[in-house]
Amino acid sequence: MASNVAVAQDQPASAPEQATTSQVDLTADPEEAAAKAAEEGKSFHSQLKQKFIEGGAFFMTFVLLTLILGLAFSIERVLYLNLATSNTKKLLAKVEEALENGGVEAAKEVCRNTRGPVASIFYQGLDRVDHGIDVVEKSIISYGGVQAGLLDRGLSWIALFIALGPMLGFMGTVIGMIGAFDAIEIAGDISPSLVAGGIKVALITTVFGLIVAIILQIFYNYCVAKIDSIVNNMEDASISLLDIIVKYNLKK
Questions:
Q1: What is the dihedral of CA 225, 229, 235, 241, to 10 degrees?
Q2: Whole-number Å distance between alpha carbons of 69 and 81
Q3: Which of 34, 132, 171, 251 gets the highest tally of CB atoms within 10 A of its CB?
Q4: pTM
Q5: d(Cα 164, Cα 131) in Å, to the nearest integer?
Q6: How many angstroms separate the CA atoms of 75 and 223, rounded?
Q7: What is the pLDDT of residue 208?
Q8: pLDDT band at 5 (very low <50, low <70, confident <90, very high)
């Protein structure tokens, strides 16, 4: 009977201890999770740096420079093309209104105060209104070609870096394989560790080169699509400007 009472008294005492332990575990879980997440982030950064070093400092440096230079040209083109984009319908309405109210000089002033290739083409056409509609059309076509060339400037460098990235990676692959076979020849035996080391270096350089090409290819395609859109707007707006000039000459 006394032993039963003792057991009954011990059971309530163990319950608070279990609750306290569970509370400690619950409070410790978020801290452990945060520490684990920080460790994983640190390990990813260190692994990336380690893979870069394992790929060979010489070729990996050239691959990195290819990425940096390609991104520099890409960002410059993206900024330039976005600044070159303008609302052609709004500009046409302003030019037509200025022609009706203030004449050619007022319309040219509107073009001077508007950025973008379309406004520059309009200005060149309006500047030759007195020479006839044929001269205006030729000047618009000629200056439109100049503006299209300015839009395309720099794309050839981006294409070059897109090609250089994988080429440098493949060159590192070939050199890594040559190093692996040289190690096998010196050792006089085909050891898995010797072969794996050379193949690992080869694959790392290839992966980094392909990553560079993929990143730059996205920027390149964006720039090409943006240029096509701007050129289409230029051509459409130029036709509309010719119609406006013809109407203006008939009213004189």
A1: -160
A2: 18
A3: 171
A4: 0.72
A5: 50
A6: 10
A7: 87
A8: very low
